[in-house]
């Protein structure tokens, strides 16, 4: 069985703020193809924004701690994690973060040989990694 990452779902109290962050800071585009049809009357009625890097979707969903209960399910899909992006120009990413006033930790290759990694938080405290494969 083969698995391919389809989307990452993050929850937030402010969908518009999160969408703005991922679009303005990371340059992701709005996603309008292959979107799920939301059944808003069956347990979860929150807003969701969809963005993409061109390959992977992100679903930015309004937090709802009662969605599982309201849907009669034990697992509530709308709760946290770490997402990672690969870039070919980490210097440009660092410049953009600095321009936007977003602090980051530069781990260099301390954690992964051959990767230069930086880590930072989005507005809701989710960890984002951006890394570049070492050249040469």
Q: What's the short version?
A:
The chain is about 20% helix and about 30% strand.
Description:
The protein is of the alpha/beta class. The protein has two domains: 63 residues, Roll (2,3-Dihydroxybiphenyl 1,2-Dioxygenase, domain 1), CATH 3.10.180; 57 residues, 2,3-Dihydroxybiphenyl 1,2-Dioxygenase, domain 1 (Roll). Helix content is 18%, strand content 31%. The protein is built from three helices and eight strands; from the N terminus they run βαβββαβαβββ. The strands form two sheets. A four-stranded mixed sheet has the order 1-4-3-2, covered by helices on one side. Strands 5-8-7-6 form a four-stranded mixed sheet, with helices on one face. The radius of gyration is 17 Å and the shape is elongated. It starts with 6 loop residues before the first strand and ends with a strand. The model has no long low-confidence stretch (mean pLDDT 85). This is VOC family protein. It holds the Pfam family Glyoxalase.
Question: Which helices and strands occur, and which strands form pairs?
Answer:
Layout: E1 7-12, H1 15-24, E2 29-30, E3 48-52, E4 57-62, H2 67-70, E5 82-86, H3 90-99, E6 105-108, E7 115-121, E8 127-133
Parallel strand pairs: 1-4, 5-8
Antiparallel strand pairs: 2-3, 3-4, 6-7, 7-8
Pfam families: Glyoxalase (PF00903)
Protein name: VOC family protein
Organism: Lutimaribacter marinistellae
Query: Number of domains in the coordinates?
Result: 2
What is the CATH first-level class name of the largest domain? Alpha Beta
Strand arrangement, major sheet:
1-4-3-2
Average pLDDT for all residues = 85
Main sheet: strands, sense, barrel: 4 strands, mixed
Secondary-structure element string: EHEEEHEHEEE
Low-confidence stretches: none
Distance between the termini: 35 Å
Kindly name the structural category: alpha/beta
Number of H/I helices: 3
Strand content: 25-35%
Tell me the name of the CATH homologous superfamily of the largest domain.
Answer: 2,3-Dihydroxybiphenyl 1,2-Dioxygenase, domain 1
Shape: elongated
Q: Please give the radius of gyration in angstroms.
A: 17 Å
**Would you report the number of β strands?**
8
- In CATH, the topology of the largest domain is named 2,3-Dihydroxybiphenyl 1,2-Dioxygenase, domain 1
What fraction, in percent, of the residue positions are helical?
A: 10-25%
Question: Could you say what the CATH architecture of the largest domain is?
Answer: Roll
